[in-house]
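Appendix B, record 7
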Amino acid sequence: MFQVELSRQTQTLSVVLEEILTSPIMWFFCALIPCLLIGCFLDIGIFQNSLAGLQKLCIPELGRVKTSLKHLYGVAVLPAPQNLSVQSTNMKHLLTWSPVIVPGEIIYYFVEYQGEYESLYMSHIWIPSSWCSPTEGPACDITDDITATVPYNLRVRATLGSQTSAWSTLQHPFNRNSTILTPPVMEVTKDGFHLVIKLEDLGPQFEFLVAYWRREPDAKEHVKVVRSRGIPVHLETMEPGAAYCVKVRTFVKAIGRHSPFSQAECVKVQGEALPLALALFAFFGFTLMLVVMPLSVWKMGRLLRYSCCPVVVLPDTLKITNSPQKLISCRKEEVEACATAVLSSEEPFRSWI
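Structure tokens (predicted):
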């Protein structure tokens, strides 16, 4: 097994050296140090000391040689993530890759992206992802980073302490117009005679094309655009005893695409039972109103009459007449009051005489 590993490492170094030798610019500089490249296999310390002084002349090729030599002599190099791919459904974009496994260690990943603007007008700069710099899992939700319908380059690298892997770049740029659109989850119900539909909330970029019709031969299909998400929407007032069917598909204006229609769902309104019950309820309600309203008007009139024009009935003891004989019928306990009333009534009679 050691021989196989050593052979693989030797092949890696050979490939790197071959790339260096095929570079015309490096022929002149690296031709001055062939002895150092040979001596490095005998004494790695000598080569590393020489490499420090020559690195300014041989960057980045000599840096790649140094990495290969470290790997050759048993120093671990963190591998780069592999198998980058983007899974996109209903405008939700997820970048995934194969995890880098180091026993007993936690690997962190950094994700960067580059849109058309960064590539053409900002000297190919890379922007760190909003949510995945860093992240532990081998996946990154890049939905908030993909804001335009243009090709995006994506890359990932792994880190472990001070070790950092090389960048792994997505093989083909990702464009959000390649997302897979699916019909939303819908719930068709009836509220009395009303046909009601409730749709899944997929986000602000989505509109829904709802088609509904009465289930009968040669029925006309109606289409309604629905933008409210997660809120029941009234479609039509149904006729008693009829069945109505509904199907829906999503539409995303930003990419100019729509999903296929969902399977049709149908509901049926009851026939005569519901109208009969409604008619009986209306009849009893009308009858109750005929009885209650006149009684209420009469009672209200009496209350208003008593409030505005009250009738005061004086007791007999307070009534004054012209004849003193009428006061003699007072009760015994009211003799004094009667006497006073008699005297008062006699005064004008005497003066008249």
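Remarks on this record: Helices lie at 2-21, 24-30, 34-39, 44-58, 61-72, 116-121, 273-308, 335-352. The longest strand covers residues 243-252.
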